[in-house]
Prior knowledge:
single chain; two-stranded antiparallel ribbon
Amino acid sequence: MELKNISQIENAAGKHRSELTRLATGVIFLFGILLYVMLQNQGVPGSLTLSLAAVIGGYMAMNIGANDVANNVGPAVGSKAITLVGAIIIAGIFEASGALLAGGEVVSTIKKGIIDPSGITDPNVFIWLMISALLAGALWLNLATFVGAPVSTTHSIVGGVLGAGIAAGGFAIANWSKLGAIAASWVISPVLGGLIAAAFAYFIKRTVSYQTDMLGAARRYVPILLALMAWAFSTYLALKGLKKIWKLDFQDALLIGFGAACLMYFIVKPIIARASLKLENSRDGVNSLFTIPLICAAALLSFAHGANDVANAVGPLAAITDSIQNAGAISAKAAIPLWVMMIGALGIALGLALYGPKLIKTVGSEITELDQSRAFCVAMAAALTVIVASQLGLPVSSTHIAVGGIFGVGFLREYLKTSYASQLHQMLDHHEGEERERLQTFLSNFKSASVEDMESMLKKTKGKKNPLGLSKKERKELKVVYGERLVKRSAFKKIITAWIITVPCSAALAATLFFVLNGLPIT
């Protein structure tokens, strides 16, 4: 047997063993949950059902970690500001910390008010409704992770509650106005995130990247950008990450953010000035100034995500626990026991460690090429979009915002490059002979140039008046090449499709599960 074939077999076997190890670790975690809950609730009516719900809650938490956390750390990894292992460690610590420290002590039993709980009078029906919704959301997330599509965990559980609710109480039980608001977020979140990220990217290009003295421009503008980042993230954390333990109105949150921004500006300005003296006057040199802020942004986004999205995993579980422990009562709010919150926190961290790398790579490098400054723009979009949307009362998804920000940066690069290409085509068309031959070398270099280098080449071309000589069809094909290289259309189509079908698919799955499970005795 050839050495090459032996090597391929060994690699395949290694991947198989790695997959089995991940699977075994996840099964051990879920089995541990089952044993713990059963031992803690021996002799309690409904203990078996509660144990089953706890296992499903742990499974949901793992899928949140595997899919949703990628949006917080993916851009930092894709831009090489931090390694994949480093990102997993930081995100795991801060996700779990956010869940445990700021996850709150009470949660709504019906996520987002998508159905009316008064329409469910039988406590057994309510418990199986919650279990069906939780399992459907987890299965949909698992499928999305498998195909490499970052989707909203909130939308997954909302779809689950909607589908199981309709199966239990009919279409009248659904709050269709709430569902309409959620559907609106499919457009609002990515568009708003993309526009904000693109605006910051364009600002950085015009004020820093396009300047001859890039480091001099960086000394002026990077401290301002980092101060804006401190303002955005302080306000974001005050409004979203700590809202369950420290209530603040918008004005107070803005004041805290402004204080953090002023402090950040005066701290980083001399640091940036000193650091720039040791850097090359290039994009790579400027990008390195964003490395540490990106790591901090990934940590803060993970903390806020853990504080907010842990409810997607433990909310239905807390509702089931509350109903069982209170002899079948159905409450609008349910307390979250510490053991329930621990399942959510540990499950998110474990799911991230075991299965998170796939989605982190998808978000960080498989949509468009990211460097540190572009990843910084995505992080800013994530914080600012939530702030703006919360004040306007618009529903948004953190997943859609982050991925929309990446698309925004990519499409901006594509627009700039194709617009420069169009200038070149218009300027150099209708030329033949030796001029055409000289152009071949120029076009080859132009095709592989960065946006900044293209602009410089175009300026030189204007003076020399070199011809292009391409037909309209060839020019259109050239634009397509640029577009495919900057934003992968296959990734764009796959992700948008997954977003659109998340609620209906998880709803259909939950309804099916409810019809199968309902009627089983609560033991």
